[in-house]
Amino acid sequence: MLVRDEQQFEQWTSDDQISSFVDFCDKVESLVSNVDSQWVLIRSCAFVNICIVDMSNAPQFVLVLKVQESMVVEVYRGNSRLSNCSVMWVLGTDCKLVCWSQLSSLLSHFVSVVVTVHELSVKVQADTIKQQLNQLIDLVNDSDDYEPDVTTRLKFLAEQISLLFMSQSRYSSETMLIAFRFFAISASVYGRLRLVLTLPHVSYIKRLSSVLSLSGGLDESDHAQYLKHKAQLMEPHDRQVILLLDEIYVEPKTTYKGGCLTGMASNTPSEQASTVQTFMMCSLLSAKKDVAAMVPVKNLTANYLKVCTLKVIEMLENAGYYVFCLISDNNRVNRNMFADLCGGDLRPFVQHPCATQLFDSVHLLKCIRNNWLGQSDVDNTFVFPDIADRSICKASLSHLRQLYASEKDNYIKMAPGLSYKALNPSNMERQNVKLVLKVFDEKTITGCL
Length: 449
Prior knowledge:
The protein is of the alpha+beta class. The protein has helices at 2-16, 21-35, 85-91, 100-113, 122-142, 148-164, 173-185, 187-193, 202-209, 221-232, 302-319, 332-341, 361-373, 397-407, 420-423, 433-439, 442-448; strands spanning 39-43, 47-54, 60-68, 73-77, 80-81, 240-249, 255-257, 260-262, 275-283, 289-297, 322-328, 356-359, 381-385, 392-396.
């Protein structure tokens, strides 16, 4: 008896296997008709569609199981493709159909859950919208006509739709950062935002931020430890950083937060700060950046700025970073501090603590690009001396426009950074640094050769 049962089971297993796509096409019609009469077959040389059609009004596809020649299965509800999770529970992670019993299980399952297009549940509609948003995000990422912030906003919108229908909210790190920034600016504004957006509760934000210090300055051991732990997770080339110096004007006031008074100047502790000297580090070879220190000051002097700068550089080097460049604007205090670092005579670099000193390089780069756009001849020809031998050189913006026009519809481009906005910016877009960097890009140089 046992031997006979095993033989029958082996025979059933053998008969259950789908040997090829041709074998599937020959036998699928009889299996589908035995499962349910609602299913309709639409054949092609490369795939087979097994469909349920709503004929109550205008004919519409309610559900489609698409079996490709490779036997990979895709499922569509209405005009939207369902995620692979809808079939992985039967087919596995590769979503490949190998047995007739798998197809029978899928057909029975989808018949039991299918509804007409007009009767779709709220959750299903929400999943469909989210999936379409994800497809839109992929299209925007593949296009050169949109800034990265468009993708960020679409991702935030997709997450908000998901959070609306979650039984227990789970927030992404990006949403947590956005929520904390709003809460840090104004708790009352954050409370109003929670009336229209799905954001973490105030008590949750407070609990997470309770470990953070609210006192600005150079003696924050917690922030130094944070930078050290972050450096340990970074690649060696990511730890080569540029230190940016800038001053932020603030309204002088004192507040009591987190058990301490904030708002007093670090250089004159008896007075309220009117500006915050900010130090930001940016990796040279990646997009990683972070705030190194924020120092509240009043009537900042070159000597005090030098002390702060050297302390910040020492803190970053102890944390594992290598600071090789300082960048600031052309403010008088910054100039005097740089001259002091050079021993009294301003030079473009010093041996220690870092190699190079630059004044407002971003602004200079925009000025060069704007000057190039402002050339009056038809080709926007920029005339400049060669750095090595002082010979006269010329660069025509029309060459870049011709390069962009010749490959704007190509999938593979020699200069993928070039876009219409980068070459023809409006007055407001001329302030956008990202558009400048698309022109002065290494790939653009290669594409012109």
